[in-house]
Specification:
Layout: E1 9-10, E2 31-39, H1 44-57, H2 68-81, E3 84-88, E4 98-107, E5 109-117, H3 124-129, E6 138-139, H4 144-157, E7 164-173, E8 176-184, E9 190-197, H5 204-208, H6 229-245, E10 252-260, E11 265-273, E12 277-283, H7 290-294, H8 299-302, H9 308-323, E13 330-340, E14 343-353, E15 357-366, H10 373-377, H11 397-411, E16 414-415, E17 418-426, E18 433-443, E19 446-447, E20 450-456, H12 464-470, H13 481-497, E21 504-512, E22 515-523, E23 529-536, H14 543-546, H15 560-571, E24 576-584, E25 592-601, E26 605-614, E27 618-627, E28 635-644, E29 647-656, E30 665-675, E31 682-696, E32 701-716, E33 731-743, E34 754-766, E35 774-788, E36 791-804, E37 846-859, E38 862-874, E39 886-897, E40 900-909, E41 919-925
Parallel strand pairs: 2-4, 5-8, 9-11, 12-14, 15-18, 20-22, 23-25
Antiparallel strand pairs: 1-2, 3-4, 5-6, 7-8, 10-11, 13-14, 16-19, 17-18, 21-22, 24-25, 26-27, 27-28, 28-29, 29-30, 30-31, 31-32, 32-33, 33-34, 34-35, 35-36, 36-37, 37-38, 38-39, 39-40, 40-41
Signal peptide: 1-25
Protein name: BamA/TamA family outer membrane protein
Keywords: Cell outer membrane, Membrane, Signal, Transmembrane
Length: 929
């Protein structure tokens, strides 16, 4: 391989590691006349980038004498960059009056592509993550064997005990390699037999069904599941947890795995010692029922070795009672061993003597003048009875609240505040209760004021007025200690934005009698400037795209906020999989900081296919292909096509995630489709293009607009009696639809909490006819709430209406709203909420629909949905239609997959009309909403 060299002569001064030079002989050091930086290999573009970075990192200036410390720092910076596999400085002649130094820098060999073959069903990403290899990262020949061992270890964990991994490389460019990882899985080790010993209470089948290591032999060719050691360990924990939950808290579960490597089989033996079944009862508990007290029992989750679990549980129950005001409560337990049906049992009785309850009748704070009494009361735990609160008086609670009040006054700048707490007991007829009035008497003392705020040693070039505007501690206002600490952070942040990232700020409070002066002592240290920003590992992505929003310009003061913003912006790029940032020089506190970003690009090309069935469109085949990083610009070029039982559609488009560097998401596409929605007597052909812009305003709020130009043609597919033939003419449609979206939903695959809202107002104009001239208003709201861990309540509401402004009151059917089916009113055929006398669906100019669904987690990846749907269509084109609200109710079963649920649902009509079906079965992939 030919090594290309780039030489640069600069008047700089380096020094070499290991040179021992006496400080007293400093004047005898040779002077550096020039320095040559030799980048030994790499593409021309990479050499230029490395040369620029290396030159910036050299810490000596022309005319200086040789300095070992400066050279050591230089070599350290170059090493920290991680871009060089070898750094060599030939020994100079130290006896000469002047010398020239050469930095010979060999760049690391970069990994350009990584391809894994033969590993499936083990994911390629799991294989690669076990190695040191990353796209754009370094490749070291001496690390090959270590990485092979790591990958083989991953395969063994997945059951492939004889797996062999081979690494091949090919040259992809100058100091660039493609890495090929070939995996020979061989025959996996399979668990052909699972024996369970010691299980008297539960059958083998019941226990095996809880084990991942067990494969149900549905077919005669089933050979058992792959033997995965981590799954065996997880199964042991699962069985132990199961036994404890069932009351066998002393149970032990161990396993023995016997392997036959020649036959590639293993036999798993589970040893269970059930021990006695615990039967726990409570006595003497009047305040709390058994249910909340059982939550304090830890024996069901942590066991009861040497009765430690029961002792922990007793302590937790006692604390529950103490918090409720039973400070004299006594809790103990008795244990009795016995048998039931020749099986050992252990009866545990929790003995509770609640004794006297101590309650608060009234709480009063006296002597409060400067602060708000209501606000102070909110910080007290000592409170009287209120709704859902009995007002327990816990031991030491008044004293704790007394200290709380003093601390509040101290935090508000008061001096010599004193608070006393007096508890007065009242006579009660009920001997089981003691009720008290609690009075907090406050002597506020004197509240200090700030007479002056002083900043000492502010760096030149920063206006002191900026500091006064930034902080909250102001002259002639009350002194707040917490504000001083907050102001210190604000001053450090402000200094950091001006390049003084090594600064220290020490606040001092100087008393001048009753009041005080606040002094912020600034130790600015030296100002740090930006030595440069470099990106490495980007083979396809253009550097100006990665640094599009970079504000760290070379020579400018370092801005910590700018560096943080740069990190967030680069990590948001869709074409990158990983980014590692370095700020080189901060550790050494240099006056220049060098920033590098090591990026790992995603594989730009993708091809995704899916096949399935959905009630709304029958069987379908979908294909998506494209380039995630089109022309290296972080734009997505895509082609989506789908063929289904209702037709086909194809879309070719480009997505720009940062349109015109304005942080605007945009999508432009052209499309064609032909579809005949189920149960409708017409079809639609469409050719057109659309352009969409979307801008996040806040974390949850997004604003956008969609423009469209479309040629649309409606054609008959069934009975079209009474239909105006005008609607079958080709139409040219222009549209503009602004929209707003609010979303705080926690997950789109399986939402459990959050709110979603989308509203749009679309303007449509027909260029050729007078049919598609209308405004379309639509709104959709969803809400998810999880009251319990296994229950999610989901709500959906939809509204839409058309406002026709053409001279022709007629609207084409393909622009109307239709309801019925899996996505809105289940239990009704697709689009058949309203039908005409011929049984054909009828659309309307207004739709209103809503759904309520309870999603109950059954365990084992199964979910039980129970739903109620309602919907109505209004202003239908054919008279005599029932536009009342239709209701359905139903349930079904969903199986949760890693990408979402697959469900079979049945909906039942609550108010069917004559001749309508009583219900309908639906199959869906994903949630309906």
């Amino acid at each position: 391989m030919t090594v290309s060299r780039v030489m640069l002569c600069l008047w700089l001064i380096p020094a070499m590691t290991g040179w021992i030079v006496s400080v007293h002989a400093e004047t005898t050091h040779p002077v550096i006349e020039k320095i040559d930086v030799d980048i030994q290999g790499g593409t021309r573009e990479r050499q230029a980038k490395l040369l620029s970075m290396a030159v910036g990192m050299i810490q000596l200036q022309p005319g200086d004498r040789l300095d070992a410390g400066a050279l050591n720092t230089t070599l350290s910076l170059l090493k920290q960059s991680g871009q060089f596999s070898a750094i060599h400085v030939p020994d100079p002649d130290l006896d000469a009056k002047s010398i020239s130094l050469i930095f010979q820098l060999t760049p690391v060999v970069q990994v350009k592509r990584i391809k894994v073959t033969g590993a499936f069903p083990v994911f390629s990403q799991s294989i690669v993550r076990a190695t040191d290899y990353r796209i754009g990262g370094p490749f070291f020949e001496d690390q090959v064997k270590k990485n092979i061992r790591a990958m083989e270890s991953v395969m063994k964990e997945k059951g492939y005990v004889d797996a062999q991994v081979h690494i091949r490389t090919e040259t992809a460019g100058n100091l660039e390699k493609n890495v090929f990882i070939d995996v020979e899985k061989n025959v996996p080790l399979r668990t052909v037999d699972i024996e369970i010993h010691g299980n008297r209470t539960f059958s083998d089948t019941r226990l095996k069904m809880r084990m991942k290591s067990y494969q149900l032999p549905l077919f005669f060719w089933s050979k058992g599941s792959k033997t995965v050691s981590s799954e065996v360990a997880a199964d042991v924990k699962e069985l132990l947890s199961f036994y404890r939950k069932k009351g066998f808290v002393d149970a032990t579960v161990t396993s023995d795995l016997h392997t036959d490597l020649e036959q590639k089989i293993s036999r798993l033996t589970i040893h269970i010692e059930e021990g006695p079944k615990y039967r726990v009862s409570f006595s003497g508990n009047r305040e709390f029922s058994d249910r909340p007290l059982k939550k304090d029992l830890t024996i069901g989750s942590k066991g009861n070795r040497n009765d430690f679990g029961l002792k922990r549980s007793i302590k937790a129950i006692r604390e529950r009672y103490e918090k409720a005001g039973y400070r004299d409560c006594e809790v103990d337990f008795t244990a009795k061993n016995g048998t039931q049906g020749q099986k050992p049992v252990r009866d545990i009785e929790i003995l509770i003597h609640e004794n006297t309850r101590y309650l608060v009748d009234t709480t009063l704070i006296k002597g409060v003048n400067a602060l708000d009494e209501k606000s102070l009361s909110s910080h007290l735990n000592t409170r009287g009875k209120s709704l859902f609160y009995d007002g327990p008086l816990v031991e030491n609670m008044p004293e704790s609240d007394r200290q709380t009040l003093e601390n509040i006054y101290k935090s508000q700048g008061f001096e010599n505040t004193r608070v006393t707490a007096d508890v007065t007991w009242k006579e009660q007829e009920d001997k089981n209760q003691n009720v008290a009035d609690v009075v907090f008497d406050v002597t506020e003392g004197y509240r200090k004021q700030v007479t002056k705020v002083v900043f000492e040693a502010i760096p030149k070039g920063i206006d002191p007025a900026v500091f006064h505007q930034t902080i909250k501690t102001r002259e002639n206002e009350f002194f707040l200690p917490s504000r001083v600490d907050e102001d210190r952070i604000e001053i450090l942040t402000l200094l950091g934005e001006h390049g003084y990232i090594y600064s220290e700020v020490t606040p001092r409070v100087v008393s001048d009698g009753k009041d005080c002066k606040v002094v912020f002592q600034v130790t600015p240290d030296q100002m740090a400037t930006v030595g440069g920003v470099w990106v490495f590992g980007n083979f396809d992505t253009k550097e100006d795209v990665i640094l599009r929003h970079n504000t760290l310009e070379q020579g400018d003061p370092v801005s910590l906020d700018g560096f943080l913003t740069l990190q967030n912006d680069v990590r948001d790029l869709q074409c990158l999989d990983r980014v590692n940032f370095k700020a080189i020089g901060v550790q050494e506190k240099l006056d220049q900081v060098f920033f590098t970003a090591e990026v790992e690009e995603k594989n730009p090309y993708f091809l995704e296919t899916s096949i399935g069935y959905d009630t709304s469109k029958d069987a379908y085949l979908a294909v998506s292909a494209g380039d995630r990083n089109w022309l290296g610009t972080n734009r997505r070029l895509y082609l989506n096509a789908e063929v289904s039982g209702i037709g086909y559609d194809a879309v070719l488009g480009v997505t720009d995630y940062d349109f015109l560097a304005r942080r605007v998401y945009s999508d432009a596409n052209i499309y064609m489709s032909e579809e005949e929605l189920k149960n409708q007597n017409f079809g639609t052909r469409k050719y057109g293009s659309s352009l969409m812009f979307e801008k996040p305003v806040t974390q949850h709020l997004t604003l956008g607009t969609r423009f469209g130009l479309e040629s649309r043609e409606q054609y008959p597919t069934g009975n079209n009696t009474g239909t105006d033939p005008e609607i079958y003419a080709a139409r040219g449609i222009l549209s503009a639809t602004p929209f707003v979206t609010w979303s705080s939903v926690d997950s789109y695959a399986r939402p459990t909490r959050g709110f979603y809202f989308n509203a749009s107002a679309g303007y449509t104009r027909d260029m050729f006819e007078d049919l598609d001239n209308f405004m379309k208003y639509q709104a959709n709201a969803k809400y998810y709430y999880q009251p319990f861990s296994r229950l999610v309540l989901a709500f959906q509401a939809m509204y839409g209406t058309l406002q026709n402004f053409s001279s022709d009151a007629l609207l084409p059917d393909d622009q109307l709203f239709f309801l019925g089916g899996i996505s809105d009113v289940r239990g009704v055929g697709e689009n058949e909420l309203v039908v005409d006398a011929f049984g054909d669906p009828v659309g309307g100019k207004t739709q209103i629909a809503g759904s309520i669904e309870a999603r109950i987690d059954l365990g084992g990846n199964l979910e039980l949905p129970i739903f109620v749907d309602a919907g109505t269509l209004q202003d239908t084109p054919r008279a005599g239609r029932n536009e009342g609200v239709k209701y359905t109710i139903g349930s079904g079963l969903r199986y949760m997959t890693p990408v979402g649920p697959v469900g079979l649902l049945y909906g039942y009509r609550l108010n069917p009309e004559t001749g309508e079906d009583s219900g309908r079965l639906h199959f869906s992939i994903g949630y309906t909403f």
